[in-house]
Amino acid sequence: MTADHVALPPGADPAGLRRAVARAHEEFLVTGCWPSGPPRGVVRDSWQRSRSLGVDPDAATPPDPLPEAELRGYRREHPLAAVLPVIRRLLVETARDDDQVAAVGDGAGRLLWVEGSPSLLTRAERIGFAEGANWAEHAAGTNAPGTALALGQPVQIYASEHFSRPVQPWSCAAAPVRDPGSGAVLGVLDLTGGDHIAAPHALSLVRATVAAVEAELRLLRVGGGSARAAVDGPARLEVLGRDRAAFAWAGERVELSPRHSEIVYLLSRRPRGLTAEALEALLRTGEAAPVTVRAEMSRLRRLLGPLLASRPYRLTAPVAVDADEVRELVAGGALRHAMSRYRGPLLPRSEAPGVVEARVDLECALRAVLRERGGADLLVEWTARPEYADDVEMLQAARDALPPGSPRALMLDARLRRALW
After folding, report:
1. Are 386 and 415 in contact (CB under 8 A)?
2. Strand 308-309 to strand 314-315: parallel, antiparallel, or no bridges (unpaired)?
3. pTM recorded for the entire structure
4. 3-228 with 235-320: one CATH topology?
5. Within 225-332, where are the H helices?
6. Selection from 268, 383, 365, 272 nearest residue 318 by Cα
7. pLDDT (tens digit, 9 = 90+) per residue, 18-73?
8. Where in this chain does the record put each OmpR/PhoB-type domain (predicted)?
9. What is the pLDDT of residues 382-421, one digit of tens each?
10. What angle do CA 226, 301, 288 make, to 5 degrees?
11. CATH code for 3-228?
12. Angle (nearest 5°) at CA 170 between 164 and 172
């Protein structure tokens, strides 16, 4: 990396640079010629590529978003999914606390995960900086993730250095992630936000996170053959909005019985396992005996085979659970994304104490954060779900968040009156 890749070196005048680059941007778009002075060479080269690729500088959002269902499957298969906890710990937590957005993209510029400050996530979505969007240079013009991938090097883009005018209020810093064995680019890490993202420390943080991610990928390769193997290994359990959980593993996908749904979910939460007595206590709604649990486990073992072990009862492979993913998104401040993945209550008809506790915990976490940070749209979306149609507290919160006289507010008033009768 050269000094040319740093947007605001020490002593630079941010406001003056923004104005000078904006003038140069307009002159370049009108004449195709370069004025004297800014921008940096790395930005000039990117503007030239963007223009040659036919990027529209006034486009509101990048084209070609990936459908959500396809995105979910693609993310599960991507090597960077295996190191997402490292990225969240080092980059996303900082972004959430410092009014920033952190993004993980693939090697072609497709954004796979976008998390961070809730208020900034909402604003970022308006320019198409969202999960599934394509931010390669050919789609979005000059920007840190796309330009870092084009160069194969870390880079910052400050404000008016963006080729697309709608993106010019933002600044970003990004660096590519490489496979520790082959050196091939696997993806890109990015921080996006205000002018402070153009300062040298932001790029240093991104580069440090990339170094940690590549070290983790190296460990995964040594410990399990490859990072891809680590991604392929976990089974997947879907319990939200379903009375019968969907369980996928080793290329198979089955719908579990209600009792087996409860058992597999409870075991997924306790990797060290449960005795028959402990599992029975989490399942018991009456005076069922432990032998009943043992009979269920015998039937479940015929279905799951070596994935289920005993003494204590436990799952022998990691299990990714959709409820846990929603909980992580809520903790990361990605409320809009959490809501899009929250398909409904966890095993809604289950009365097993261990399941009921988990279901209430997740709902309470969602409700608390929505009341505090969700805004009118997400609050109204919550109350529009049939299972929460009579949630008086959230109906009132949604009503209070809407301006007086709003048609939606009047409808909520009517629903509140009905719910309180």
Report:
1. no
2. antiparallel
3. 0.55
4. no
5. 227-232, 258-268, 276-283, 290-304, 322-331
6. 268
7. 999 999 999 999 888 877 777 899 999 999 999 989 999 998 788 778 888 888 88
8. 251-315
9. 787 888 877 788 778 877 878 777 777 777 778 777 777 7
10. 130
11. 3.30.450.40
12. 100
